Amino acid sequence: MRPTNRCLLQASRAALGHENPLGLPKSGTIPRMQRGLPQKRAIKDVRKVIAVSSAKGGVGKSTVAANLSLAFARLGHRAGILDVDIFGPSIPTLFNLSEEPRLSSNNQLIPLSNYGVKTMSMGYLLGPSAPVVWRGPILMKALQQLLHEVDWGGLDVLVLDLPPGTGDTQLSVAQQVVLDGSVIITTPHTLSLSDAVRGISMFDKVSVPVLGLVQNMSVFTCPCCATQTHVFGTSDKVKQLCAERQIEFLADVPLHPRIAEDAQEGKPTVVAEPGGERAEVFMSLARRLGEKVGL
Ligand SMILES: Nc1ncnc2c1ncn2[C@@H]1O[C@H](COP(=O)(O)OP(=O)(O)O)[C@@H](O)[C@H]1O
Ligand SMILES: [Mg+2]
């Protein structure tokens, strides 16, 4: 039987029009809002934390983050992924998971696992169609719980799938959690690149090392004639940006229908075609990031 719930689970269900929208207990394990900026805290039982970010939506953060966590697991690390995109969670779909998480005896959320990776997402707590209508302090409380009230049970590496932008959530994560670094995802399109620059500046401001850039969806190779099309413009622009900002160009993920199809089937590339060249891009990204953060 499930333990009595005192977490986001109930909270989120009661959220609309309820006096105590998060269903928080009067006392207990859930931290109260603090005055001023909260302290930077390490995520408990997790050795390394890598944030996958982009200031632009739809550039492939969740796809890369999911495959990266799976690649870490394949390399033998105890890996997890935390979906910090509260308004648009993707991890339940990408990992084909939808159960309600259980609570541990000390009221921590127990992650759901698939393919050897532990996962937690607001999507598990709210269900697939519920809109999140939180802002301000309630959003911050939900975020705090995702960041600090999950029983990871010992991880070598946790990947954070951040929402797009450089707003409240990203800043709060960067300021409240000890991060080993961030990885920024971008396409070579000018609109995405200028947002990538904003992302780099945000992490600089909060003293989080930018481990590098991942270029996504730059090249499509025609399966019939092998012609290569640079869908979002030439890939040189991302490399130029890396050179200008002295940031490593970490990986170049091609645009390929299988990457999108496998993702929506809940079996991302690293597990769907483990020996393939596309999976190898994510494997070498994981190896390089592992070296950089000292895994
Ligand atoms: N390399 C790729 N090749 C093909 N489709 C991709 C690739 N990367 C991402 N996609 C697709 O692009 C869309 C946006 O990706 P997603 O990971 O959800 O982006 P974000 O998290 O940045 O919003 C999804 O439909 C995803 O399947
Ligand atoms: Mg996403």
UniProtKB/TrEMBL annotation:
InterPro entries per record: Mrp-like_CS, Mrp/NBP35_ATP-bd, NUBPL-like, P-loop_NTPase, YlxH/NBP35
CDD domains: Mrp_NBP35 (cd02037)
Annotated Gene Ontology cellular component terms: mitochondrion
GO molecular function: 4 iron, 4 sulfur cluster binding; ATP binding; ATP-dependent FeS chaperone activity; hydrolase activity; metal ion binding
Family matches, as SUPFAM superfamilies: P-loop containing nucleoside triphosphate hydrolases
Protein family according to the UniProt entry: Belongs to the Mrp/NBP35 ATP-binding proteins family.
Protein name: p-loop containing nucleoside triphosphate hydrolase protein
Species: Coniochaeta ligniaria NRRL 30616
Taxon lineage: Eukaryota, Fungi, Dikarya, Ascomycota, Pezizomycotina
